[in-house]
Write a structure and sequence with these properties.
single chain, alpha+beta, Beta-galactosidase, Chain A, domain 5, 2 domains, eight-stranded antiparallel beta sheet, four-stranded antiparallel beta sheet, Trehalase-like_N, Glycoside hydrolase family 15 protein, hydrolase activity, 6hp_glycosidase-like_sf
Length: about 600
């Protein structure tokens, strides 16, 4: 079965996907949302790739260098062995800033014998819209296109450039390198310099992981997920991407294909909450500044998503010339969902603001701005919470009164009250408590369905929705509240399919999905754990972990029947939920050990 057997490398400026055979099949330069330079992922024939080709008798294995974002692909025929160490450089400079250039190093490490390989170096610039020509120069190979738009890419290498570009066989006798650069280098690279880049980048990631707590249970999974989330943060602005890819389909051959190289306020806020839980407060502070910069006017409504450089207009377009992943058209850039109204984003944002103030109140530089944003959010929520919206799943049909959106409106006011307490603003507390009580009463009255014995997807409906499982996580109901327990049971009965969850089963704009939204299964596991069914939750969690790819990475969706990974990849949403579940199980084990030692 074809699966998303890819590893991600990145340096918080851009990212690349490399297959389990060492083929570089997706990369956009100079940053995450630029046009692609390699896009075989979206079109086998036209997209462009950078492949390392060995004879059939070579066994190929792949893993990450432990606790880093350096991907190691090993090629061995028993006697002749070499490794490919793929990474995007990232490390501290003497100035205190980070060196994170728009480039990929493919360091070729000689292990034993005289291994042989050839190279298919075939970048296709600007989403492969026009022809890309390749020219061998004294110091590099330059790839160039000027049909649609002028663009260039440079390849530096220790190997014979003509052998590389012509795909001729190379015999490896010592370490060598390939360096793919968006910009021409001022200083000529060398194997020694690339080895130094590798070591510096390795140290950067090892140091980063060293600042992350160690957990008793599922620590490797937590670390790999945390590293993946870090790679999806854009250093320049503090934005967090939903995923580094576009148009990987939720179902093969269908049209649910979207561009995820943007910052959704909801996804990013949830990621930041988890990352700060892991002790990385700088990421949280940069993201808060990203939000502050987006809200210049007190009455300005927040969009659900923005470009990674704070762009507000994300016009959706179709790349008709690309066949799509496994023939799944269309391939899209941009995302029309930026125009949608989703009332839940205010609650999610307020939750993050409160968390940061609560955890780092002595270290928050922008308290006055955050208080202004808090007051602005309360004003907007109070004015609009009774209106319908598109909901968390971005239904493109008519607006409805979605339960999740209402609960998050309540969260917005609840967290604003807590922020007011931190800042000692007592008059606001009284005023806002009345709004909070009104929203809470409205939800209990309209979202609870006696016939279904559960909180339902939207007011007046009979449909269940996995998003309501978050009511407990956000503190709206207690885990042992009979209404929440029965909601979890109803969702298990109606939305679970072989241990994987539907988001919902009522038909949307595209019909009934045939794949599970990965994060929903994590939410369900968390809910089971919270209502006391911990053994069952753990069994489901271990089963779900087994569906990751060979490197422990998850996409957005999993096919119910084949368990194949589908949707954009790797998905920040999936990995943040994995971390939340794993931390719960780990804490439980720690608590049990403490109780055992006391008794």
């Amino acid at each position: 079965m074809d699966n998303l057997n890819y590893g991600i490398i990145g340096n918080c400026r851009s990212a690349a996907l490399i297959s389990n055979t060492g083929s570089l099949d997706w990369c956009c330069l100079p940053q995450f949302d630029s046009t692609s330079v390699f896009a075989k992922l979206l079109d086998d024939k036209k997209g462009g790739s950078f492949e390392i080709i060995t004879k059939y008798n070579y066994e190929i294995t792949q893993k990450y260098h432990v606790n880093t974002a350096i991907l190691v692909t090993r090629y061995s025929d028993g006697e002749n062995i070499f490794e490919l160490h793929d990474f995007m450089p990232r490390y501290h400079k003497l100035t205190g800033k980070y060196n994170a250039p728009p480039e990929i190093v493919r360091y070729v490490k000689h292990i034993s014998g005289a291994p042989k390989f050839s190279v298919l170096y075939d970048p296709k610039l600007e989403y492969a819209k026009g022809e890309t020509g390749h020219h061998v120069k004294n110091n590099f190979i330059v790839s160039l296109t000027d049909k649609e738009k002028f663009d260039t890419l440079f390849l530096y290498t220790s190997f014979n450039k003509n052998h590389v570009i012509n795909g001729e066989e190379i015999t490896l006798k010592e370490d060598g390198y390939f360096l793919v650069c968006y910009n021409e280098k001022i200083l000529k690279p060398s194997t020694e310099k690339m080895s130094l880049e590798l070591e510096r980048t390795k140290i950067y990631w090892l140091d980063w992981v060293d600042r992350t707590p160690t957990y008793k249970k599922f620590n490797p999974e937590i670390i790999r997920s945390a590293l993946t989330l870090k790679m999806l943060t854009y250093d320049k602005t503090g934005a967090v991407l939903a995923a580094p890819t576009t148009s990987l389909p939720e179902t093969i051959g269908e049209v649910r294909n979207w561009d995820y190289r943007f910052c959704w306020i909801r996804d990013a806020s949830m990621v930041i909450k988890v990352v700060s839980e892991l002790g990385h407060k700088n990421s949280a502070k940069r993201y808060l500044q990203f939000i502050i910069d987006l809200m210049p006017d007190k009455d300005e409504k927040l969009q659900i998503m923005y470009g990674i450089n704070k762009e507000k207009k994300l016009t959706e377009q179709t790349l008709e010339h690309l066949d799509g992943y496994k023939g799944s058209k269309p391939v899209r850039t941009g995302n029309a969902a930026y125009k949608q109204k989703q009332n839940d984003i205010y609650g999610i944002l307020m939750d993050v603001i409160y968390e940061q103030l609560h955890k780092f109140s002595n270290d928050i530089e922008n308290g006055e701005e955050l208080w202004s944003i808090t007051k602005g959010i309360v004003w907007i929520v109070n004015k609009h919470w009774q209106e319908p919206d598109k909901g968390i799943w971005e239904f493109r049909g008519e607006d409805r009164h979605f339960t999740f959106s209402k609960v998050l409106c309540w969260v917005a006011i609840d967290r604003a009250i807590k922020v007011a307490r931190i800042f000692g603003k007592h008059r606001k507390i009284e005023q806002w408590t009345a709004i909070e009580q009104e929203i809470k009463a409205d939800i209990h009255e309209n979202a609870w369905n006696e016939d279904v014995n559960a909180f339902v997807q939207s007011y007046g409906s009979y449909d269940l929705d996995a998003s309501v499982l978050l009511m407990e996580s956000y503190g709206f109901v207690d885990a042992r509240d009979p209404k929440f327990v029965s909601t979890v049971k109803a969702i298990e009965k109606d939305l679970s399919n072989d241990g994987l969850l539907y988001r919902y089963k009522n038909e949307d704009d595209f019909g009934l999905p045939s794949s599970s939204f990965t994060i929903c299964t994590f939410w369900f596991i968390n809910a089971l754990f919270k209502i006391g069914e911990e053994d069952k939750a753990l069994a489901h969690f271990e089963q779900l972990l087994s569906y990751s790819n060979h490197l422990g990475l998850f996409s957005e969706d999993i096919d119910f029947k084949t368990k194949r990974l589908l949707g954009n990849f790797p998905q920040a949403y999936s990995h943040l939920a994995l971390i939340e579940c794993a931390i719960n199980f780990s804490r439980k084990q720690s608590e049990e050990k403490i109780l055992e030692s006391i008794s």
